[in-house]
Design brief:
Elements (H helix, E strand, L loop, with lengths): L1 H13 L8 H30 L4 H14 L1 H15 L8 H6 L2 H10 L15 H4 L1 H16 L9 H13 L4 H40 L8 H36 L5 H17 L1 H4 L2 H10 L5 H15 L9 H13 L6 H17 L6 H8 L7 H16 L4 H5 L10 H15 L5 H16 L2 H9 L11 H20 L15 H28 L4 H7 L9 H5 L3 H17 L3 H14 L7 H28 L6 H20 L7 H15 L4 H23 L5 H21 L5 H17 L21 H14 L16 H23 L9 H4 L6 H18 L1 H23 L8 H15 L9 H15 L17 H5 L8 H14 L2 H5 L6 H10 L17 H9 L17 H10 L25 H21 L3 H4 L8 H4 L5 H4 L17 H4 L9 H5 L1 H15 L1
Helix pairs in contact: 1-2, 2-4, 3-4, 3-8, 4-9, 8-10, 9-10, 9-11, 10-11, 10-12, 12-14, 12-15, 15-17, 17-19, 19-22, 21-22, 21-24, 22-24, 23-25, 24-25, 24-26, 25-28, 26-29, 29-31, 30-31, 30-32, 31-33, 32-33, 32-34, 33-34, 33-35, 34-35, 35-37, 36-37, 37-39, 39-40, 40-41, 40-42, 42-44, 44-49, ...
């Protein structure tokens, strides 16, 4: 289409030619018109050829050169139109315009013909056809200059015209012109720099030839040759001067203005090309006059521009011969480069570190110790590319300097190897960084560049086991601990072949080469450590930290090596060492490491299983027998147990508990002994804290292992009954320990109770496990109350209250205590979400939302979201209940005559406003819930009459002021109904009152007034909805407007009518099967609810009679509240409702009659409510949605 348009345009313009007077003029014009018509075709074809990129660019340029030699005006006009079209402009420069108009006038004319409908142009268009356009465009310019460098560019016509055009276009207000012409000018400059470089080389060669010829003896000197060389040097000098003039014109006319253009892409083009010039022709461009532009632009606000600066500098610093010319720049901008290692754009930070690595490679003296340290700590960055770049810098600085003697000496092994000092250096660096828990990050950062050193496990073993050489300083205890931790991290990295947790998005697929390397590394590490590990454990058996790390090594072994390598005797040594460690240590981390090691070795796929299983059984037999024997003596001693016996019981119980975590110990019947121990602790009340905690944990493991065995389906019925009895008895025991005086014991009992209640809820029978239904356990009201009281007493406390024990002074311990409290709250909130406890218990949690927002806001908010997904109405009732509880607490503290401007009352109002925001913008989804919330709020406000008489407001009337925050969420129809229900509680005298004490009632009534300007009324915003109505009417009709599906539409009227007339319909929508554990019977409506229903249905019937069967067909559409207006400018308010299911924003067009007629059936129509088919369709649709 573009080709045809241009041809037709040129043809129409060509018809004017014959009308010109004069034979010569007519002939010239006709020829020009004819050429111009061809020019239009050639012009389009030139653009098309470059766009497609299928033809050889040199042949295209050669054809243009031939055309230029034939008629340079026509050819140059083709080139000008080529640049115009590459900018996306549909206009064409005619021959007449070219002859008679200035560049500025031509550009103004082209600007007028520019297509303003779209902001796209070839350089920014998406799609495969435009993917290679930029490279083809740049290649065309480069080839054009290269092919013209010997003649045409010096004719003082072609280059002057092109440079003048590009300079004018680069100053245009049109982005497409400016972007395209700047790119063309910069590429033109790059091509000219290359020509200038060739000229410089030719001039140097000519000068050398001239000097050589002139230095010859007079008899052998060729004067003709000297004259030719002089003439050639003069021509080259003239060409050089002309090229320099062209480059100065482009640099001063385009670069100096565009390197600070408003568009980041244009600035990036300039910086990228100046880097090419300085690298290509360093003698002319690598000086401070040009480097300063790169230095200044390193402060650019756009990351892509800063990135181009760094990549340009990398090309310069990579060449060591240029270092002398960069000294002043380095000293001036070094601090900026160092600061860019912390750039917010990770790509920029990576390139900044790589640039510093090149600077370091060129000279060790440039970067100070402080500069290097600022890069060192980045090896612990969570962003892996940054960490890897920092690892390369660290390796270059600390590990790449080797003595020349080391390379000449024969390779040694162990602690005498070359890597020994490098490994020590890594240990020293790790200790000095004071981030000991991040050894895995350090190893991963250096894995790509220093894998040879990090995988020299033989040297590490030698450093740990062998005696130091004469004159060598032995490793200290801290250094040995750090070396063992680094060694463990290297083994894990080699075995798993993926970054540690926190780096990377997940496991990637390994290549064949990487898989082979992984298998080779596992084989080598197993062969080395199968022999060395027993010796290491024997040497460090008393050091808990070292032993814990060493015991993790067998998890990464290739266990088949024990058999194929005939290493069984070393396996026996390992098992003996583990047994001794279990008997020697009581530290939980050490015991759990031993348990995991046994679990890793007890793999039935390998032949060593029997050998390890026997050793494990012998160890556990001894520990359980010892525990039973000690427990019997311990419980028989009476009221004052001996401390030594208590320590023996505790240490043995710790070992059994640690092993029971990973191994099934059901055959030893640990439930009886632990239950007896716990029961004695309850009766006597003097049981040591740690014994109770580990007894609770061990019993918990007994229950879980029994459940696992029962779930397999191979157990007997008696086993299930036994498990049911044990589980219920243990839950009762944990409930009794909730009242313990010891906080740690109560926390352990609470955590275990929450886990068990969740595991043995109704979800246990999902997934085809109906046979486990006898195990379902529903907590009694007393247990639910105890759990809630624990949360209120131990979670919602101030930080100062929790630091009375003297151990909460430092910041780290405070953070740890907060983390523990967050886990406790999350455990209880899961019970609410999965319907294990009554949802209304969440009111005590929700009311703390504002007070403890910083500590638990995210947990409480997510809980509200999940409960709303389960049951919107019950969630709304819970929210209003939490506000009522806060209101009652305020009354008890301040009395009935409190000031409504007090901080307590304003805090409750603010909480209500936050709750209101969580309902989102979709009023249809939350219609029933909001109506029920208002109903409960009205009843609460008039619940307590004033003892002074009817002339005084009810005690809770001020609650209506809080309830007003939810008025904006009501639809217009619902506002009228709620207002009628409000009048049910009002007397005639109340409606006439205007005193301050009655203001809550007045403001609430105003927020419910059913008029044209109240739909978006809010107490907070006070904004009328007329502005919103105007905006809605002016808005374009939505193309994908959501309609009410017949099977899923419900409203308050239908639910309430069904409650009143037919108790067979559930009160609430059925919850998802997995989250519903309690089946409740529908409750009877109170007289107030019945009256509210009667008003609602009466109004609905009258409205339908007036307007026809479709109520919403002729009524104005509900206007969605303008959240940005009602939030008083606070951006965080928008976040309150962004992650709930009600946030499907779909602003409907106002007065759209056609779509309104499709919103049927109308459930406000009594006929629809009583139609059984409609009701069955509604609930069947919901059930299908659940399925």
């Amino acid at each position: 289409m573009l080709t045809c348009d241009v041809i037709m345009l040129q043809a129409k313009k060509g018809k004017k030619g014959p009308g010109e007077k004069g034979k010569g003029a007519g002939k010239g014009a006709g020829r020009m018109n004819g050429h111009h018509q061809e020019n239009g075709m050639e012009n389009v074809m030139l653009f098309e050829v470059v766009r497609l990129g299928k033809s050889a660019m040199q042949s295209v340029v050669d054809d243009w050169i031939e055309s230029y030699k034939h008629d340079r005006d026509v050819a140059l006009l083709d080139l000008i139109n080529f640049f115009i079209q590459c900018s996306g402009c549909k206009g064409v420069v005619t021959g007449e315009m070219f002859r008679n108009m200035q560049n500025s006038e031509i550009i103004r004319k082209m600007t007028e013909e520019f297509d303003e409908d779209s902001g796209d142009y070839p350089l920014t268009m998406a799609g495969p056809q435009w993917k290679k356009f930029k490279s083809s465009f740049c290649e065309f310019i480069g080839v054009l200059v290269r092919q013209c460098q010997y003649s045409i560019i010096y004719d003082e016509y072609m280059m002057d015209t092109v440079i003048s055009l590009l300079t004018g276009l680069s100053d245009s207000q049109v982005r497409a012109f400016r972007h395209t012409s700047t790119l063309a000018a910069m590429k033109l400059m790059t091509a000219l720099v290359n020509v200038a470089l060739n000229l410089s080389i030719n001039m140097d060669n000519t000068q050398r030839q001239y000097e050589a010829e002139r230095n010859k003896m007079i008899g052998k000197r060729a004067n003709d040759r000297l004259e030719l060389l002089l003439q050639k040097r003069k021509e080259l000098q003239e060409n050089q001067d002309e090229i320099e003039n062209m480059m100065n014109a482009i640099f001063k006319g385009v670069f100096v203005h565009r390197y600070r253009d408003a568009i980041a892409e244009i600035r990036a083009i300039c910086i990228e090309e100046i880097g090419v010039w300085m690298k290509m022709y360093s003698d002319a461009f690598l000086n401070d006059s040009y480097l300063k532009y790169v230095g200044w632009t390193m402060h650019d606000k756009q990351g892509e521009v800063r990135l181009k600066c760094l990549t340009a500098l990398q090309g310069l610093y990579h060449n060591r011969e240029l270092n002398a010319k960069l000294e002043l720049f380095t000293s001036r901008f070094k601090d900026r480069i160092v600061s860019m290692t912390l750039d917010k754009e990770y790509d920029v930070a990576v390139q900044a570190i790589k640039l510093l690595t090149l600077v370091l490679h060129s000279s060790d003296e440039v970067l100070t110790a402080e500069d290097c340290e600022s890069v060192y700590h980045l090896v612990y960055s969570a962003h892996r590319p940054v960490a890897v770049a920092a690892g390369e810098f660290l390796f270059k600085k600390l590990f790449s300097h080797r003595d020349p003697e080391d390379d000449s000496m024969p390779k040694r092994r162990g602690r005498q190897s070359v890597n020994a000092n490098l490994i020590k250096t890594a240990v020293f660096f790790f200790l000095e960084s004071e981030l000991h828990e991040h050894a895995a990050y350090l190893v991963d950062s250096m894995w790509d560049c220093a894998a040879e050193i990090l995988k020299d496990w033989e040297c590490m073993i030698s450093l740990l086991l062998d005696e130091p050489l004469p004159g060598e300083e032995a490793l200290t205890d801290r250094q040995e601990t750090a070396l063992i931790e680094i060694m463990l991290c290297t083994i894990r990295q080699a075995a798993e072949c993926h970054p540690p947790v926190g780096r990377g998005t997940g496991k990637r697929v390994l290549t064949a080469k990487e898989k082979k390397t992984q298998l080779d590394d596992r084989t080598r590490m197993t062969e080395l450590f199968a022999i060395a590990l027993p010796a290491l454990l024997a040497k460090y058996s008393v050091d808990a930290e070292k032993v814990t790390n060493l015991l993790q090594l067998p998890q990464f072994f290739d266990l088949e090596i024990y058999t194929t390598g005939r290493l069984e005797k070393h396996l026996d040594s390992l098992l003996r060492q583990i047994r001794e460690i279990v008997e020697k240590h009581t530290d939980t981390d050490v015991l759990e490491a031993c348990s995991k090691t046994y679990h890793a070795l007890c793999n039935e796929e390998f032949t060593i299983f029997n050998r390890v299983d026997i050793a494990r059984s012998q160890l556990l037999d001894e520990q359980v027998d010892k525990f039973n024997r000690l427990l019997e003596d311990f419980l028989q001693e009476g009221e004052d147990p001996d401390e030594d016996d208590a320590y023996q019981v505790l240490s043995t119980l710790k070992r059994i508990t640690a092993f029971h975590n990973a191994h099934d110990l059901s055959k030893w019947d640990l439930f009886t002994s632990n239950y007896k121990l716990l029961n004695t602790g309850i009766e006597n009340g003097d049981m040591p804290e740690q014994i109770v905690i580990h007894a609770l944990q061990c019993t918990h493991y007994v229950i879980l292992w029994s459940l696992a065995k029962v779930s397999e389906g191979t157990s007997k019925k008696e086993d299930m009954l036994t498990l049911r009895k044990q589980m219920r008895a243990f839950c009762l025991m944990c409930q009794r320990y909730l009242t313990s005086v010891n906080t740690a014991v109560k926390e352990q009992a609470f955590t275990i109770l929450c886990d068990l209640l969740l595991i043995f809820s109704h979800q246990i029978i999902s997934g085809g496990r109906e046979a486990l239904e006898p195990l379902v356990y529903t907590p009694e009201a007393s247990l639910q109350s105890d759990l809630l009281n624990f949360i209120l007493d131990h979670v919602f406390i101030d930080q100062d209250e929790d630091s009375n024990n003297g151990q909460q002074d430092d910041e780290a311990s405070k953070i740890e205590a907060l983390h523990k409290r967050r886990n406790l709250l999350a455990a209880y909130c899961k019970l609410i979400i999965y319907n294990v406890v009554e949802m209304n218990t969440g009111a005590d949690i929700f009311k703390q939302y504002m007070r403890y927002y910083n500590d638990y806001g995210d947990i409480i908010k997510e809980t509200m979201s999940k409960t709303r997904q389960i049951d919107k109405i019950q969630c709304a009732k819970t929210l209003i209940l939490s506000l009522q509880q806060l209101f009652n607490e305020m009354l008890s503290d301040l009395g009935p005559s409190f000031d409504r401007s007090s901080s307590a009352f304003c805090g409750i109002k603010e909480l209500a406003r936050r709750f209101s925001l969580t309902f989102g913008l979709d009023q249809l989804k939350t219609r029933e819930a909001i109506a029920m919330l208002h109903k409960d709020g009205i009843e609460f406000a008039f619940k307590e009459p004033n003892p002074q008489g009817e002339g005084h407001p009810p005690l809770n009337l001020a609650f209506l002021d809080i309830l007003s925050e939810f008025s904006s969420k009501l639809m217009r129809q619902d506002k009228r109904t709620v207002h009628m229900y409000l009048e049910r509680f009002m007397t005639f005298q109340m409606a006439l009152q205007r005193e301050d004490c009655w203001l809550p009632l007045i403001s609430y009534r105003n927020s419910l007034q059913a008029g044209g300007d109240d739909d978006t009324m809010s107490v907070v915003s006070g904004i009328s909805s007329r502005g919103s109505s105007v905006r809605s009417k002016k808005a374009k009709p939505a193309t994908g407007k959501r309609k009410l599906p017949e099977g899923k539409t419900s409203n308050v009227t239908e639910v309430w009518m069904n409650r009143e007339q037919s108790m067979q319909t559930p009160i609430m929508m059925p919850s998802p099967h997995l989250t519903s554990t309690i089946m409740r019977e529908p409750k009877r409506l109170r007289p107030e609810e019945s009256f509210f229903l009667q008003i609602w249905c009466l109004w609905s019937f009258n409205a339908c009679s007036r307007r026809g069967t479709g109520l919403m067909e002729d009524d104005e559409e509900p206007i969605v509240e303008d959240v940005m207006m009602s939030s008083e400018g606070r951006i965080e308010d928008l976040n309150e409702g962004m992650d709930f299911d009600t946030m499907d924003i779909d602003l409907p067009p106002s007065k759209n009659r056609r779509e309104r007629s499709e919103l049927k059936p109308d459930f406000f129509d009594p006929a629809s409510i009583m139609d059984e088919s409609v009701r069955s369709t509604h609930f069947l649709g919901y059930d299908a949605f659940q399925r």
